[in-house]
Amino acid sequence: MGCQDEPLVQKVWELYEQISSLENLKPSKDVNMIFTKLVLTCMPPNPIDVTKLCKKVQEMRSKLIRLCGEAEGHLESHYSTILGSYENPLDHLNIFPYYSNYLKLSLLEFNILSQHYTHVPSKIAFVGSGPLPLSSIVLASKHLTNTTFHNYDIDPLANSQAIGLFSSDSDLSQRMFFHTNDIMNVTNDLKDYEVVFLAALVGMDKEDKVKVVDHLAKYMAPGALLMLRSAHGARAFLYPVLDPCDLRGFEFLSVFHPTDEVVNSVVIARKYAMPTHSLEKGLGPMILPNKCAEIQAFNHFNQGNMIEELAIEDKLS
Ligand SMILES: C[S@@+](CC[C@H](N)C(=O)[O-])C[C@H]1O[C@@H](n2cnc3c(N)ncnc32)[C@H](O)[C@@H]1O
């Protein structure tokens, strides 16, 4: 499979060259047009497996993911500034071009969470909330209306922009908290959260993202849920991909690959109830996710979207 001979790879490569030659990635007609083309080019069905691409294309992919992340940050900051100028910012969220995507993504995440968590979480952490924390806003205002959200961002400017959006909202201003910190420096506080969400742009490649997941596995409470965003098919040109075997210390529960305009795949996993070293002695449930090769995934379809769960054979008994 593909180096630059694949038509899709050629198209993405052309767009990458246009993006990397832009003067800057701040929102403008040209920037918006090129990124819209890129997102449409990567829309399913594009069953490309990016792990099988040649080295040159892999290098392009990791640069493109970083460029997309930079552009997303500028886009959020731009609209957060505009929203912050309104008297009631949260009444005008629909000025953000991808607001409807967040409505769909947050509904999807809430539904998947509800399948694995029987009661309403009281405290949630959102890691990588950004200058426009739409995931937390939509989840808190439309789905988890009694839950407190602790938003973490490494960028103080992102948090100061985000905080400015809530002052006029009597409900959310009491339930949204912001912490400026690299999540890798947050330790004991992580055990307070029943659910931790990990934004797609925390960890810009698999290696960095796995480091964050390992850190969360070390400090999250046993049994707590991790919801993270990945990508599938050609959308892996836009975001890093995490596989079940990357979730060391967690029991992989499921991954959902949307086929509509929601770009991110949604992964849910549960922190093992006991330290993984005791699991390896066969004292706990079956396979550890890091034994990838021994896990067979099976897919079943739900309204055209693909849900992957794992048929885990008992290899330790
Ligand atoms: C652009 S936002 C996207 C999230 C989006 N606003 C949402 O609601 O889903 C991603 C944010 O992750 C933050 N980030 C990246 N690495 C991080 C880290 N190690 N710790 C905390 N925040 C991080 C970036 O500063 C950025 O603001």
UniProtKB/TrEMBL annotation:
EC class (word): transferase
GO MF assignments: nicotianamine synthase activity
Enzyme Commission number: 2.5.1.43
GO process annotations (BP): nicotianamine biosynthetic process
Catalyses which reaction(s): 3 S-adenosyl-L-methionine = nicotianamine + 3 S-methyl-5'-thioadenosine + 3 H(+)
Record keywords, A-Z: S-adenosyl-L-methionine, Transferase
UniProt-listed InterPro entries: Nicotian_synth (IPR004298), SAM-dependent_MTases_sf (IPR029063)
Transmembrane segments: none
Statement: the UniProt record of this protein carries the keyword Transferase: yes
Highest taxon, organism lineage: Eukaryota
Protein family per UniProt: Belongs to the nicotianamine synthase (NAS)-like family.
PANTHER family: NICOTIANAMINE SYNTHASE 3 (PTHR32266:SF12)
Function recorded in the entry: Synthesizes nicotianamine, a polyamine which serves as a sensor for the physiological iron status within the plant, and/or might be involved in the transport of iron.
Name of the molecule in the record: Nicotianamine synthase
Organism per entry: Lithocarpus litseifolius
Lineage: Eukaryota, Viridiplantae, Streptophyta, Embryophyta, Tracheophyta
